[in-house]
Every structure is written in C-alpha cells, then in structure tokens.
Amino acid sequence: MDALIIAAGFGSRLSELSPSKPLTPIFGIPLLELGVRQAKAAGARRVVVVTGHEGDRVEAFLPGLAERAGIPIHAERIADWSKPNGYSVMAGAAAIDGDFLLMMADHIFAAPILQGLAAQGGPDRGVTLAVDRRITSPLIDPDDATWVRIDPAGRILAIGKTILDYDVVDCGAFLATQELPAAIAAAIAAGKSGSLSDGMQYLADRGRAATWDVGSHGIDSWWMDVDDPRAHALAEAEAPLRLRTLYA
After folding, report:
1. Domain-by-domain residue ranges, the chain?
2. CA-to-CA distance for 102 and 81, rounded, in angstroms?
3. Phi then psi for 21, rounded to 5 degrees?
4. In the chain, % of residues over pLDDT 90
5. Strands (E), the chain
6. Which numeric CATH code is attached to 2-247?
7. Rounded to an integer, what distance in angstroms lies between the CA atom of residue 1 and that of residue 83?
8. What is the pTM of this model?
9. Tens of pLDDT along 82-141?
C-alpha cells in the first residue's frame, strides 16, 4: 500500500513561522518528515508527496528524507497549487495503483490511528475517514475544522466546514480507493469547486463513504491539525511525548 501526502498549499496561517508549511518544524522535525514516518509506521511501502507552493524547496528535501526514513518517496508537482485540495488528491492518486492512505501534511497522529485506519478497507466502501467524537477538544480549531454528520452505522451523510448539524470531526486521514479521485472529478464535472470534501460528499450521497472513530478502540487517539501558531505551540509541547515512537 502507498501513502499520499498533500503538501501543495500556501499555508497562509503558518506563514509567519515558516515560508513552507510542510517544512515547518515541530520540535525540530519538519511536519512532512513526521508524516512520512507516520505513513511508514502504518505499513506504507512508498509515499507520494504532492508539491506546489515552494515546490522546489520541498522536493529538494525529499531525497534525504527518503534515505533517513528508509522508504521511497515520489514527488508529484501540481501546476496550480491555488486550486482546491481535491486537485492535489487527483494528481497524487494518478501515480498510485490501488488503495492508499491519504494524509494532509499539516496533520500529525499517534501511531495507532493510521495503523488502525489502514485495516479498515472493504468492498462496501470507496473511502474510510478517520473521525473523532471529541468535538469540543481544545486541540481542535472549530473555525477551521471539517465537520461530519453520520448515520447510526457510521456512514457519512454530510461533510464540510460550514455544515451546522454534525456528530464528529474529520481527523484528516483517509483510507481511499481509486473511487475517491474519480468522485472528485465527477463533482467538478457537476459544477463543484474541486475540494476533497466535494468528492467525499459525492461518495457519501451514494453510500460509499464510511468512517472509523479513533476514540472507540482503546488506542492512543491523539492527533492534531497544525494549521496556525496556536496549534503549532500546542504541538511543540505535546509532540515529543506523543510521537517519540517514530524515532525509536
């Protein structure tokens, strides 16, 4: 199984700390390196990184990272990184055969989350999203979070940053089949902007979008979206303890 890490956007909310969001360090370790190591710990055998903003700099970082982490890394440059993130998903997925772990470069996780998510595939779904019912956690930014409404079986009914009725929060990690990039393309053809959430909603409307609740399995379910200076400070304080196994 491959992993796909989206690392193409500008990251304006972290720009005061670093010109490149994926290379912003957490306790001295770039976010992108944490993501690659997390993917390997979850069983990925290769990582595809979609680059865009500061693409030359990010891509120059990858060979050394591949050697340190002991995993092949393929860079896929997107021509217009200002487009919605679904375009990055489509570009990266085109370099992958089969299912893949999909991660955002600014999300970090305790190892059991991605390891558990990687085991959630099945013919009854086109994608499985890691979600969390702890929607009032101080580690979540309610103004930037993607919210999810689910049915009693955990299937997604609605997903987006602006939905008013929701049960869980999107953790930013997916076990995806090739149905997901196809769904994003179909959503674009239907007039949507091309966000990842557009593709997820397309699959949800067809009963093909499942969830996996990170807090319901007796595992270390710590995760963060490092999207602004406040979150960065929290991550700096917590990551050395939470992510130490990546360097064991």
Report:
1. 2-247
2. 18
3. -60, -45
4. 77
5. 2-7, 25-26, 29-30, 46-51, 73-77, 100-104, 107-109, 127-132, 147-150, 156-160, 168-176, 209-213, 223-225
6. 3.90.550.10
7. 27
8. 0.94
9. 999 999 999 999 999 999 999 999 999 988 999 999 999 999 999 999 999 999 988 888
